[in-house]
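fyi for ur records
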Amino acid sequence: MSAGDLIASSVSGADYGYALMWALVLSLLARYVFVAAIAKYVLCNNNSSNSIMEGFARIWRPLPFIIGLCAFALGFGYATYIIKGAGTAFYNLIGRPGDSEWGVFYSAAALVAVTLLLLFTRRQYATFEFVARAAAVILLGSFGAVVLIQGFDPAEFVQGLTFQVPESTGGFESLVIVAALIGGVGGSTTNLMYNYFLQDKGWLTPKHRKIQLIDLAVGMLVILVINLAIWVTAAETSVAGSAIDDANALAGLLGSTIGLAGEILFWLGLFFITFTTFPAYSYGQTKLLMDGVVNTFRPAGDAASQVAGEDFEKKASFRWLQGGFLLVLPLIFSLPVMPSFVELTILVNALAAIAGPIIIIAIIVLTTSSKFVLRQHVNRWWMTAALIVVGGIGVWASYQAIVGIF
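which gave:
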């Protein structure tokens, strides 16, 4: 669960009601297929490696570096809105003291400073993981309670699951919203970070495939339920049909239904999600870059397993890249003159969809040939067909993002 999920679902529901809900379901199905295929290579490859970047290098040596660089660039984009979102939430939780225009920037700067300190402590990511789980519980409880209190329209809900693209209204083009859903909820380069989750879990062999698929399915189900609760809340509130381009308007989605407690719950949920997301994203996207660099430029004699086992995060260059480019520099976008948190979220996630097709094509190549994975784990025809469909969705979303934004 990320800030992209929260914002994309909220804006979609508020601006278009239930009409684009099919895109949410489609994006999560695409994410499941996409991530499951990534995990298949990591667990079932025939090269004794646990790195997806090593697989990309087997297709074309420069590919890991290109994808890693793309991931790092998108990581900067993600950081611009996630850090601003964390600052906005924290500023509202402490009562909006002082100058409201600069309060968000000062709050964001303080949170980045805390994060930089945590980067040099032990088990820092275990702490972030615990807080992230708490955020998911808060969001599910708060938005779920609102849905139960205000109810929803079953007929409109079902109709929203049918393919339809309404005329643009509110602050964003409808097709840009769809692209943002696919980029933010469906994911792009962020899906590649699942590789490191498997490494941390110790799931690195074919015998872990079953538990990995179950774990992934449960995670997708939780994300779906939370996003649907957020979407229904946005669609059913009095602001539905109006432009949502500010975080305060999103807080009003809950406040208009259950009062001040609703707004506080929203800010708590947003704070926990963003404050745990930008450290994790900065870590993951930096690791993708360094993993890509090493797999592209490694000496010919180095074994893939040796490269995959490198502790990139222990290198000074890793800390400088993560802290300087993905934590400190993005603070510029928290200045008052910059676009709002909501606007940055939609635009960055729409752009994220552009990187998806390249990665999906590479994953299809890796999982459909016994040249790369163990013969018994080569994709069956329907698995490949599903990946091709996901790739087609990614190409369509990329086109819509480019046309809608530029």
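Residues 31 and 187 are 6 Å apart (CA to CA). thats all i got for now
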